[in-house]
Amino acid sequence: MADHFEQFHADLRSVAAGLLAKERTVEWAAIADAGWTGLEVPDHLGGAGATFAEVAVICEEMGRAASATSFLGSAVLAAGVLNSLAPSATRDRLLAGIASGTTRSAVALEPFDFVPDAEGADTVLVLTNGGVAEAAVTITAQPVLDETRRLARVAVEHCSEVMAFDGDPGAAVRRIYDRAAVAVACDSLGVAEAMLAATVSYVTMRHQFDRPIGSFQAVKHACADMYVAVAISRQLVSAAVHAVARNQPDAAVAASMAKAYACSTAVDVAGKALQLHGGIGYTWESGIHVYLKRAALNRSLFGSPAAHRHELAQRYL
């Protein structure tokens, strides 16, 4: 069974890489046509009935390609929030709309200052005490350093019907934040792996003094450090994805470990990639700046590394 899922994830990764390589900006309709928006939507509502493990594969590939999409806010977060609710006609309508691509939803998590993909969304879901509500909101675009993300400030005017969580509200909200953190960690892992691959390729090709610069000891050590950091990130992210997908009791711990380490690593690896590419790395044409800025924003989204380390430290008090 494990081998079966590994092959399925490999196939999904290959298809995603092929689609995302075509252009950096991928529209919502194209994502919906690929079936990614409905991965976690139950099959009777038009989705694939898959799990967060499959969503994580797409998140990683989007980071690897530095794609500009609405997938994070309008699919990953929205589907996760709706799946955490008790069955209702409104919930099922919104899930079916996400799966078909006819509805693009966004999720406003407090403090509502940097809400992913709220701009242009058909529906904004707001977490309230004990549930989630469709809300009438005022949306103000928030320009950020990373041009591949669309964030906005959301001011809630009034909420309509409040849909109740299916179970303990506190635990449900905790799971939503864990999902968000791990999704961004997956994206950062993709960023780091892309920068490592690009750097190794460059230092193998680039020659100085009639030899590849990758043969210089300082460059070897830098690449080795990047590789080790990326390998550790992959282990932590894989554990966090597994914990979130299976709703394990320690999912919050795994999520914080992955978010803190993977997002810091992506910034460090992209920074080293910039340096090891030499002068060309600082040019607009190299594209490394796109990855560095994406990694920097990922580091702040849904909790900084310091905030997540603080959460982890509470276990020892």
UniProtKB/TrEMBL annotation:
Keyword Oxidoreductase appears in the UniProt entry: yes
| SUPFAM superfamilies noted in UniProt | Acyl-CoA dehydrogenase C-terminal domain-like, Acyl-CoA dehydrogenase NM domain-like
Pinpoint the Acyl-CoA dehydrogenase/oxidase N-terminal domain residues.
26-101
> Which cofactors are named for this entry?
FAD
Molecular functions per Gene Ontology: acyl-CoA dehydrogenase activity; flavin adenine dinucleotide binding
Q: Which Gene3D superfamilies match?
A: Acyl-CoA dehydrogenase/oxidase, N-terminal domain, Butyryl-CoA Dehydrogenase, subunit A, domain 3
Question: Which residues belong to any copy of the Acyl-CoA dehydrogenase/oxidase C-terminal domain?
Answer: 180-316
User: Which UniProt keywords are listed?
Assistant: FAD, Flavoprotein, Oxidoreductase
Pfam families attached to this UniProt entry: Acyl-CoA_dh_1, Acyl-CoA_dh_N
Q: Which family does it belong to?
A: Belongs to the acyl-CoA dehydrogenase family.
- Name of the protein described by the UniProt record: Acyl-CoA dehydrogenase
Q: Which organism is it from?
A: Mycolicibacterium rhodesiae (Mycobacterium rhodesiae)
